[in-house]
């Protein structure tokens, strides 16, 4: 019984706060906004979305330092860009919702 009484009290408080002066009707302004999803900043710095291919691309790793002694052929394979695997695209979409 006390739960119903507290609910009735809260409804009357809402009605008292939301009275429209111009036409004397109770107006409820309920604002249902969806919270924004956050972009994973580490992923955003490393991956870029390619809309034509519907996939993501990134730079290859392994060329920042310690390259002396490696053959040019093996270093050339580490240069350039690569695309995301099909199994990773759905995970990347969750991490980058606005790309």
UniProtKB/TrEMBL annotation:
Keyword match Membrane: no
- Which keywords fit this entry according to its UniProt record? Ribonucleoprotein, Ribosomal protein
Give the protein's recorded name. Answer: 50S ribosomal protein L35
- UniProt xrefs under InterPro entries: Ribosomal_bL35, Ribosomal_bL35-like, Ribosomal_bL35_sf
User: What Pfam families does the annotation carry?
Assistant: Ribosomal_L35p
Q: Tell me, what is one Gene Ontology molecular-function annotation carried by this entry?
A: structural constituent of ribosome
Q: Which GO terms describe its cellular component?
A: mitochondrial large ribosomal subunit
Q: Does the keyword Chloroplast apply?
A: no
Homology family? Belongs to the bacterial ribosomal protein bL35 family.
Q: Name one GO biological process term.
A: translation
């Amino acid at each position: 019984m006390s739960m119903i009484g507290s609910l009735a009290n809260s409804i009357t408080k809402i009605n008292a706060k939301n009275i429209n002066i111009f036409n004397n009707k109770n107006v409820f302004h309920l604002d249902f906004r969806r919270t924004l999803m956050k972009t994973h900043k580490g992923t955003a710095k490393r991956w870029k979305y390619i809309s034509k291919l519907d996939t993501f691309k990134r730079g290859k790793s392994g060329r920042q330092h310690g390259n002396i002694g490696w053959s040019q052929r093996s270093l050339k394979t580490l240069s350039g860009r690569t695309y995301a695997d099909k199994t990773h695209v759905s995970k990347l979409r969750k991490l980058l919702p606005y790309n």
